[in-house]
Amino acid sequence: MATNPVKIFSGSSTQYLSQKIARFYGKDLGTVTVQRFADGEMSPSFDESIRGCDVFLIQSTFTPAENLMELLLMIDAARRASAHYVTAVVPYFGYSRQDRKDKPRVSIGSKLVANLLTAAGADRLITMDLHAGQIQGFFDFPVDHLEGASIFVPYIRSKNLDNLVFASPDVGGVARTRKFASYFPGANLVIVDKFRKKANEIAAMQLIGDVTDANVILVDDLIDTGGTICKAAQLLLDKGAKSVRAICSHPVMSGKAYENISNSVLEELIVSDTIPLSQSSPKITVLSVAELFAKAIGRIRDYESISSLFINY
């Protein structure tokens, strides 16, 4: 059993979630002061001793550059303050969509971020629902990859929907959707195959599978502008679905996302609070991941299994 004190701190953007995580864990958040120079440069400092402590730094990297830089500086500050072990808790991992070189002369952004976290001095990463699972292999230290299904599966079950069909909004998300469907015996799987000319712009879309008279759940890791999900929902309804809902772990919600969701045929969009919503919508349901992350921190602290948090829902 570990004996080093645990201290939990939050970056500026994730206070709303960090407070809840700390409360579920049973500790108060530590205090960090972030000095900002006139040109926007940041200089974080811990307002209490962390020498010899197991430090958990919580920061989602939405609007990625600013929040990522703050997290890197906090990790560096913790390491220089003689923290025993530094864990980056990143509920939403920005740049995860850049996980491979799919055309010439592009970067692999998620690998670069992994290198930056390593260089800053992180010992471990806790995150949830990466865009691609192989991103875990970009790190040379342990990665605890939590599953949003831990909160979404019980919620869907509470709806008592019959003739349930799970839909992947693209071919790349089939594995994610199939795993989600496996928690619902008898549920079928369909695929919405799309072709893009460029990012955030769909050229064509077709359905693989049958959704006649089905209650369909679209499953994705994130929602950005909402264009894909809304068009997929319309296609599913046109093909005979009784209702269409969507689960998206990370509500990036940029551009006209809220307008797109409001005007769509979706009955409900179910998201987590890894990213805060900038406005409310009657169609959007937010489920909190705070308890899930608090339990993960506790099990890491006590050297217990993490995988038991998301099996046998």
From TrEMBL:
<dbReference type="InterPro" id="IPR029057">
    <property type="entry name" value="PRTase-like"/>
</dbReference>
<dbReference type="Pfam" id="PF13793">
    <property type="entry name" value="Pribosyltran_N"/>
</dbReference>
<keyword id="KW-0963">Cytoplasm</keyword>
<dbReference type="GO" id="GO:0002189">
    <property type="term" value="C:ribose phosphate diphosphokinase complex"/>
</dbReference>
<protein>
    <recommendedName>
        <fullName>ribose-phosphate diphosphokinase</fullName>
        <ecNumber>2.7.6.1</ecNumber>
    </recommendedName>
</protein>
<keyword id="KW-0418">Kinase</keyword>
<dbReference type="Pfam" id="PF14572">
    <property type="entry name" value="Pribosyl_synth"/>
</dbReference>
<dbReference type="InterPro" id="IPR005946">
    <property type="entry name" value="Rib-P_diPkinase"/>
</dbReference>
<keyword id="KW-0545">Nucleotide biosynthesis</keyword>
<dbReference type="GO" id="GO:0006015">
    <property type="term" value="P:5-phosphoribose 1-diphosphate biosynthetic process"/>
</dbReference>
<keyword id="KW-0067">ATP-binding</keyword>
<dbReference type="GO" id="GO:0000287">
    <property type="term" value="F:magnesium ion binding"/>
</dbReference>
<keyword id="KW-0460">Magnesium</keyword>
<keyword id="KW-0479">Metal-binding</keyword>
<feature type="domain" description="Ribose-phosphate pyrophosphokinase N-terminal">
    <location>
        <begin position="6"/>
        <end position="121"/>
    </location>
</feature>
<dbReference type="GO" id="GO:0005737">
    <property type="term" value="C:cytoplasm"/>
</dbReference>
<dbReference type="GO" id="GO:0009156">
    <property type="term" value="P:ribonucleoside monophosphate biosynthetic process"/>
</dbReference>
<dbReference type="InterPro" id="IPR000842">
    <property type="entry name" value="PRib_PP_synth_CS"/>
</dbReference>
<dbReference type="GO" id="GO:0004749">
    <property type="term" value="F:ribose phosphate diphosphokinase activity"/>
</dbReference>
<dbReference type="InterPro" id="IPR029099">
    <property type="entry name" value="Pribosyltran_N"/>
</dbReference>
<keyword id="KW-0547">Nucleotide-binding</keyword>
<dbReference type="GO" id="GO:0016301">
    <property type="term" value="F:kinase activity"/>
</dbReference>
<keyword id="KW-0808">Transferase</keyword>
<dbReference type="GO" id="GO:0006164">
    <property type="term" value="P:purine nucleotide biosynthetic process"/>
</dbReference>
<dbReference type="InterPro" id="IPR000836">
    <property type="entry name" value="PRTase_dom"/>
</dbReference>
<dbReference type="GO" id="GO:0005524">
    <property type="term" value="F:ATP binding"/>
</dbReference>
